[in-house]
Amino acid sequence: MLFVNKPLDFLSVAAQGVSLFLMEIMMGFESLKPGLLLGSAVYALLGVLIFWLCFIVIDKLTPYNLWEEIVEKQNKALGMVVAAMSLGICIIVAAAIH
Question: In three state form, how does the secondary structure of 38-65 look?
Fold first, then answer.
């Protein structure tokens, strides 16, 4: 995790970012090849699709409608639980795809 406590730390991090960008330019933008971009887009869409399918399954398993409880009834506690479950699902999907 990156913690920036001082202005000099921020400048150091900014300098590292600029140096990485310049290295990428010198290497010819290897990460911007069409095949790599297409693969990344397909995996991103696959991850989002799997996430939504998992969310729908969780919604069907609960005895109430999650969307109605969170959005219409403003149930903040349930919103926090669903947010934690969503992050967990996202981490699992990302690890499985990676």
Answer: HHHHHHHHHHHHHHHHHHHHHHHHCCCC
Task: Give me the average pLDDT of each 10-residue run along the chain (98 residues).
Answer: 52 69 67 73 85 87 86 90 87 79
Same domain (yes/no): 42, 72: yes
Token duo for residue 44: 């991103």
Overall pTM > 0.85: no
Number of other CB atoms surrounding residue 58 within 10 Å: 14
Q: Give the pair of three-digit tokens for residue 79.
A: 């919103």
Total domains, the chain: 2
Residue given tokens 């330019």 in the structure block: 25
CA distance 23 to 20: 5
pLDDT for res 6: 52
Contact 43, 95 (CB under 8 A): no
- Spatial CB neighbours of 36, under 8 Å, sequence gap ≥ 6: 30
